[in-house]
Amino acid sequence: MSTVVDKPTTDAPNIDVKSPVTGEVMYQIQDITEDQVGDIYARAHDAHQRVSSMTVAQRVAEVTKLKKWILEHKEEIIDKICAETGKSRTDALISEIFNTVDALQYYEQNAEKHLAPQKVPTPIILFPKKSKVYFEPIGPVLVISPWNYPFNLTVIPLVCAFVAGNSVVFKPSEYTPLHGLLEKMCEDTGFPKDAFQVIYGGKDTGRRLIDGKPAKIFFTGSTRAGREIMKQAADYLIPVELELGGKDPFIVFDDVNLDRTVNGAIWGGMSNCGQTCTAVERAIVHEKIYPEFVEKLKAKLENLSSATKQRDPSDSLSLDVGVMTTEFQVEKVQELVEDAISNGATVLVGGKRGEGHQFEPTVLTDVTPEMRIVKEETFGPVITVQKFSSENEAVALANDSIYGLSASVWSADLDRADRIARQIVTGNVSINNVLATQGNSALPYGGTKESGFGRYKGSFGLHAFSNVKSVLVDKQGSMLELNWYPYSKEKYALFSKLIDTVYGGAPFALVKAIGIGAKLQKLSKKKHL
Ligand code: NAD
Fold first, then answer.
1. pLDDT given at position 3
2. What is the mean pLDDT of residues 155-184?
3. N or C: which end of the chain has fewer CB atoms below 10 A?
């Protein structure tokens, strides 16, 4: 296959981009050098000036062009995504294209409203002032992405940052750089020059780009890297938003439709070959239905078409689960599964890697909370199943994790499901559905605990990249503020009375406050500096 080295003029070592299916080197990229960082940010700052002076409507018009381009090129985009990630075509269509264009359309329809100045009520005590909030651009934003959804997790933050008025410096994962694709999108649509720069490379490139002092870092990736990035950003006081790992619980009560629920568990656990931060990793099932749940899970998993066992090898679109993207992740999954088995877990289905990056869709039972497979993010096609007998136990098992990204609760009793959803420490919960919160572009998205912090998507997605500026407007005139200098015994006593009256729940507080205010006003007029 062709070899493309981006910026071949530097001495930095080449990084191989390999096919997850064949292991063949498809092309190479290079880390940037320290010398290149200055130019990248000079371009980003210049672009920022231009982007920030556009109206929101003008920026949205650019998003409309991107959306149109994505729709027109979706098969080409999917080809590239599948070649570099190894995911099934339908996974790519649904999670990379569908979710992305939906988010773009959401911003087309809602960005102007979310970024419009907001009026904020001004309390009577501040009469006749007025208060408002502006959402203003912040400067070049650095977006660093992982390899599991290289298109979705790039285009959505790009659009959020851009629509809010910022330029973006983007570093894709060195495993799935989608070389040239996003540049082509920007070129074909006439996207503002340098408003979106794609900078290839690995961790060293990421570190160098942080040293370039972006206005904000939007990072999606592992908790390990999130920690490193936050430490580095702390030296410059760069704000960071961290979208990190997960270990999602899938809680099932005994009143559910088992067929639908088990299908949900399988899709939630296996889509994108389990390499989803919000994948179902821990099924927590009521003891009454546990045997039937496990039996159905096994039977339905036998019918899944995966790279290890294809339903119809001649029909590529019927492939449910593709291969894993990176060798190190396949090894990690294998290590965790073997560790669980050696500590007493039972393999209900799967359990082994196949050729290359294939890994069998796997379910493990008889797992304990101490096992690594229950504690660590597996990020592969593996679901563990645990039993519970009471609501408290279900919640305790779900919360027994360093992560808190997403969860799902399944029950016909919606009050109970809601009660449980409120008790799970997490950023997102789907009730009687799975990975569903991400399906609504109006809902904010982000984690708690070691899954990170910050929220994007919905209105939060624009405000995450905005300087939220508070403005209070007063009238011009001769009137002095009651709380200004000079202070005096009399002023102290009047203010003390005003506070007690307004906040102490006194009857006719407003009338009394107006009386005290009038005295303070007289005092301010009589005595000023
Ligand atoms: P990773 O953390 O290894 O790498 C992510 C990106 O960060 C890559 O582009 C990498 O080059 C860069 N990077 C790594 N260390 C860096 C450093 N010190 N400084 C600057 N850049 C650095 O993650 P990954 O293996 O690509 O992705 C898998 C992880 O991402 C999983 O833990 C998964 O749960 C998480 N993830 C989270 C979300 C979410 O929305 N919360 C979404 C997708 C993936």
1. 35
2. 98
3. C
CA 224 to chain centre: 16
Q: Which of 84, 85, 144 to mutate to test the pocket of ligand 1 (most atoms within 8 A of CB)?
A: 144
| 3-state secondary structure (DSSP) of residue 311 | coil
243 is catalytic: yes
Ligand 1: nearest atom to the Cα of 146? 26
Residue 324 clears pLDDT 70, i.e. is over it: yes
Q: Residue 110 Cα, ligand 1 centroid: separation in angstroms?
A: 29
The position carrying tokens 């998003």 is 63
Determine if ligand 1 sits within 6 Å of the CB of residue 244: yes
| Whether the Cβ atoms of residue 307 and residue 316 lie closer than 8 Å to each other | no
How many whole angstroms from 219 Cα to the centroid of ligand 1?
7
- Residue 348's φ and ψ, nearest 5 degrees, are -80, -40
At residue 528, the pLDDT reads 83
82 labelled catalytic: no
Q: Percentage of the chain with pLDDT > 90?
A: 95
Compute the distance from residue 145 Cα to the ligand 1 centre, in Å: 6
Q: 75-107: per-residue pLDDT in tens?
A: 999 999 999 999 999 999 999 999 999 999 999
Q: Is the CB of 146 under 6 A from ligand 1?
A: yes
What's the pLDDT band for 1 if we cut at 50, 70, 90? Answer: very low
In angstroms, the Cα distances linking 418 to 338, 393, 409, 432 are 36, 16, 8, 10
pLDDT of residue 527: 79
Give the model's pLDDT for residue 178: 98
The pLDDT tens digits for 275-288 are 999 999 999 999 99
Tokens of 311: 């339903």
Q: Which of 497, 455, 448, 470 is nearest to 245 (CA)?
A: 448
**Predicted pLDDT at 30:** 96
Residue whose CA lies nearest to ligand 1 atom number 26: 146
Set 84, 96, 243, 376: catalytic member: 243
Distance CA 122, CA 269 (A): 49
CA distance 484 to 446: 43
Ligand 1 atom nearest residue 171's Cα: 9
Q: Kindly name the residue from 62, 277, 281, 450 that is annotated as catalytic.
A: 277
> Residue 98, by phi and psi: left (phi above 0), alpha (psi -120 to 50) or beta?
alpha
Give the per-residue SS3 of 56-77: HHHHHHHHHHHHHHHHHCHHHH
Q: What is the pLDDT, as a whole number, of residue 117?
A: 98
* Ligand 1 center–CA 448 separation, angstroms: 17
Q: Which residues pair with 470 in a beta bridge?
A: 133
- Identify residue 129 by its one-letter amino acid code: K
C-alpha of residue 218 to centroid of ligand 1, in Å: 11
What pLDDT does residue 9 have?
55
